Amino acid sequence: MVKLLKKLTWKDFILAAVAFVFIIVQVWLSLTMPDYMSEITKLVQTKGSKMNDILIAGGKMLACALGSLLAAVCTSICASKISSNFSANLRGQVFHKVQSFSMEEIGNFSTASLITRSTNDITQVQMLIVMGLEVLLKAPIMAVWALCKISTKNWQWTASTGVAVVVLLSFVCVCVAVALPKFKKLQSLTDNLNRVTRENLTGLNVVRAYNAEGYQQKKFNDANDELTKTQLFANRTMGTMMPGIQMVMNGLMLAIYWIGAYLISNAQMFDKLTIFSDMIVFTQYAMQVVMSFMMLVMIFVLLPRASVSAKRINEVLDMPLSIKDGTKENGIDGKKGEVEFRNVSFCYPDAEKDVIEDISFTAHKGETIAFIGSTGCGKSTVINMIPRFYDATKGEVLVDGVNVKEYTQKALRNKIGYVSQKAVLFTGSIKSNVAYGDNGTKGFTDDVVKQAIETAQAKEFVDKTDGGVDAFVAQGGSNFSGGQKQRLSIARAICRHPEILIFDDSFSALDYKTDRVLRDTLRKTCADATRFIVAQRIGTIRDADKIIVLDDGKIAGMGKHNELMETCEVYRQIAYSQLSKEELA
Ligand SMILES: Nc1ncnc2c1ncn2[C@@H]1O[C@H](COP(=O)(O)OP(=O)(O)OP(=O)(O)O)[C@@H](O)[C@H]1O
């Protein structure tokens, strides 16, 4: 928690200092009120007192109350400003850090947990800061000031207040100790609920198609019940605190009156009024002392959960990055567009064996390199090494003659146009999705966007859509078909005019005719770009300059279609399973 609080800016500290001044004013006014009360008590009990004097003392008391209220409002304004700024900054930092995570780090946390950490966990810390500033500063000042005021009055009363504070603190400590483990568990259970809800929402069509509503409902109920049970236990434990504190306060009041009654009965006649007046004032101060500790208790309610949240936020912020930036911006002259894999092997984090082993090949500028092989043989893994979604565990990947690890990630990715296996569109317009990101130039002109849409064979449906390139794209591109989404994703990659184009099984949702026309157009319009195509269909890749056949993470064959038909058994099997001998001839 302390580590997170170090992120407060100097502006926050200035605001905290202003809040501190308001708190002092608030405490001073609150503790001045009992003095006027004492004066009023004395005036009421003294024969011949004037009504005007009582009204003046009452008016001063009222002014103190209003002043204290005003100071409390100003403190709250400062506290909420500090906490809102702090949480906004923290959310920004967490978002920025998560953006720099590779797939490895994201896998370590899980997406659901990262969402909880960026939202719910930060809210817990924010709540603590608001309360903390108001209470943590105010309560000790109030307690010490009030104790100073009462310590000179009467030792029996002071001692009884001391006993009440000790009982109160012991009680609070026991409650917090019982509830703390449950608070720790609460955040991970929130992650779990988040995960189940997300999974259900993203797979809603599948859930419905398989009549799995009952199964999903059970999964949700289990997660929900466990969270509710834990919350109930923690809140019940903390809930017993308030009545307990109330009991201590009432007991203290009783003790003060009991001691007061004893003192008054044993006092001389002329002292009785002074003791009575002192007793009234002391009760007020004693209540302020106990109230201060009660306010601190509110912090104890929030602190355990907030400190667990702070730890979870720090875990994200302190996570070392597995993909580190290099320094190079440019490759070697004369090697532009060249991609080379040198004895590359890769093992996923926590996996037992390498998913790809000893992969070596070179792709020259303007060539089309295709990957084919059975499901799960490692095709996507190989091409994911080029934009450094993962780094090779052995060997080297070189782009333009330079190891990808030596480039700044921005420079490397400026060279690449990547189309993922699952088409991803963002909320916005067709144009904002195609002219997406930054390729090191000053944005994309309308003509470049239109050209990319045309090359990706998306012009026909874009023109037909209301609004054309400005047509609205819903979250995840849900208002477009699978094939349309793929074509827009392809247009996005082409729009960057990259040196290297990567298509990870990106033609699978296209009909055969569009697939062929798109490949022909790509060959003409992106002739300079080195193209990597992962495909399942032989038809998509048979014209490639180099086809790499992968089998269980290893290269089973490499060459042109005709060569592989003669030399590679795995390729032949794939080919014959898709096309007839006549089609392949
Ligand atoms: N994030 C991951 N963590 C652990 N293992 C993974 C991860 N992603 C993929 N794998 C494993 O690595 C292997 C290769 O996966 P990859 O996605 O590269 O295959 P692929 O050939 O592209 O498959 P497909 O044709 O089905 O897309 C698979 O066995 C898969 O289970």
Automatic annotation (TrEMBL):
Residues 339-577 form the ABC transporter domain. Residues 17-305 form the ABC transmembrane type-1 domain. Keywords: ATP-binding, Cell membrane, Membrane, Nucleotide-binding, Transmembrane, Transmembrane helix, Transport. It is a multi-pass membrane protein. GO terms for molecular function: ABC-type oligopeptide transporter activity; ATP binding; ATP hydrolysis activity. The keyword tRNA-binding does not apply. InterPro entries: AAA+_ATPase (IPR003593), ABC1_TM_dom (IPR011527), ABC1_TM_sf (IPR036640), ABC_transporter-like_ATP-bd (IPR003439), ABC_transporter-like_CS (IPR017871), P-loop_NTPase (IPR027417), Type_1_exporter (IPR039421). It comes from the Bacteria. It is found in: Cell membrane. GO terms for cellular component: plasma membrane. CDD domains: ABC_6TM_Tm287_like. The chain crosses the membrane at residues 12-34, 54-79, 127-147, 159-180, 247-265, 285-303. This is ABC transporter ATP-binding protein/permease.
